[in-house]
Design a protein that fits this description.
Oligomer: single chain
Helix content: 25-40%
Number of strands: 4
Strand content: 15-25%
Distance between the termini: 31 Å
Structural class: alpha+beta
Number of domains: 1
């Protein structure tokens, strides 16, 4: 049985992958979600090719991811005032911080070997609070 957090994560991966396919203006057909072990997150058919899109989210730090996903998973309510203070505090070099985190995630995902697709694609989404 999947948790609400896992369901939210899968919906998010599908939405990001669909957005990428739409932005590229290709006529890909959604096949299914990947298996979370050794397949990319979202599987498509495109021009006689099976394309798997692995989706990754880049945050300034783990506290930003935690803040976002605890709300998305229904584990806590977003403040009624419509905003919240960033748990990680003030960033002194936000672009450099995000670039460093992006490079680390890219290296992590690049090492992974995927099965079940002709072409694995990587889509990294930068999440800024």
């Amino acid at each position: 049985m999947t948790t609400r957090r896992e369901q939210s994560k899968r919906r998010h991966e599908k939405a990001v992958a669909d957005h990428l396919v739409g932005a590229l203006a290709i006529e890909a057909t959604f096949l299914r979600m990947g298996n979370d072990r050794d397949e990319p997150d979202v599987m498509y058919a495109w021009s006689r090719t099976t394309v798997g899109i692995e989706v990754g989210a880049v945050y300034y730090d783990e506290s930003d991811a935690r803040q976002e996903w605890t709300v998305a998973a229904g584990e806590r309510e977003f403040p009624a005032i419509g905003f919240e203070v960033r748990e990680g505090g003030i960033l002194s070099a936000p672009d450099a911080t995000l670039n460093t985190r992006l490079q680390l995630l890219l290296q992590q995902k690049w090492r992974k070997r995927y099965v079940g697709v002709d072409e694995p694609w990587l889509c990294l989404e930068c999440r800024r609070p």
